[in-house]
Amino acid sequence: MRLAGKTIVVTGGSRGIGRACVVSAVAHGARVLFCSREDGAASRDVERAAGAGAAVGVRADVADEGSVIELFDQAMRRFGAVHGVVNNAAISRERLLVSTTTEDWEAVIDANLTGGFLVTREAIRLFIEQGQGGRVVSIGTLSQFGVSGNASYATSKGGLAGLTRRIAREYAHSGILSTMVIPGYVETAMSATMTDHAKRTLVEGAPLRRSGAPEEIASVVSFLLSDAAADLAGQAVFAAGGLHEVPP
Length: 248
Hints:
alpha/beta, seven-stranded parallel sheet, about 45% helix
């Protein structure tokens, strides 16, 4: 799982699973550029947790094409190369389908799916220019398999799963490998907005019968970013306490 000498870009890296991914990647030897929509105290806290100079936080909006291009420009200026990306940035709007406004739908799709596309496209362009392959790891969700109350979020992550498989078909022969990690219920600021029913479904329905921790998800992400995962392309790795589908 060594990531020594590699530069990783993590989106949504200031809290939750993204924060844990930054800290884990640095612990395995990587240099990390991470972004959030607000470049403030939370980002500085992640930099301190990761260690001086090993992780740098910047402000970026993954739903904005120009912002994404600038994100990778900063990574290249600071570190000279990019070897992997983690598509973690996401927002959620807990609504039943008929209560989901057009504004809610567009905001979630823009951040989670279009953002993932823009980040992935820019990363792959760099990987091709560098000629050394690369890794794209996206964070999915069990919600895409049927947890009620979040149609826009489930749809955005389902689309990201399709993109993950497509990248494998188009670029795996060049050493550009894409995978997705699908967590179960993990206690984060975002998951706090889930309904109690959805939380119980994911925790009590899992064989382990417990919630996951951001650090546990991050350890799987670090593995997928490393050379140890060289035979994985297009796969979804479930880190969900034993769940592979949503319990009835």
